[in-house]
């Protein structure tokens, strides 16, 4: 009978260890889930930034094209003004 309380103490220690292991697993699962969520958010942000950079580059190219068109129009207007002046002399 002297071995009975020792077995009981060992059994409760094993139960405590099992509960501790279960709570550690739970915390680890929460941390993994949290990290996964953070990685997904970071990935979305990087993709959004990449898309923003792409749109910015496209806008810059469009502005250059517009600038060329404006310069060409300005040149055409200057030539038309010269032609108009010549026609007025005639």
Automatic annotation (TrEMBL):
It holds the Pfam family BORCS7. It is found in: Lysosome membrane. The lineage of its organism: Eukaryota, Metazoa, Chordata, Craniata, Vertebrata. Transmembrane segments: none annotated. Keywords: Lysosome, Membrane. GO terms for cellular component: BORC complex; lysosomal membrane. Belongs to the BORCS7 family. It comes from Columbina picui. This is BLOC-1-related complex subunit 7.
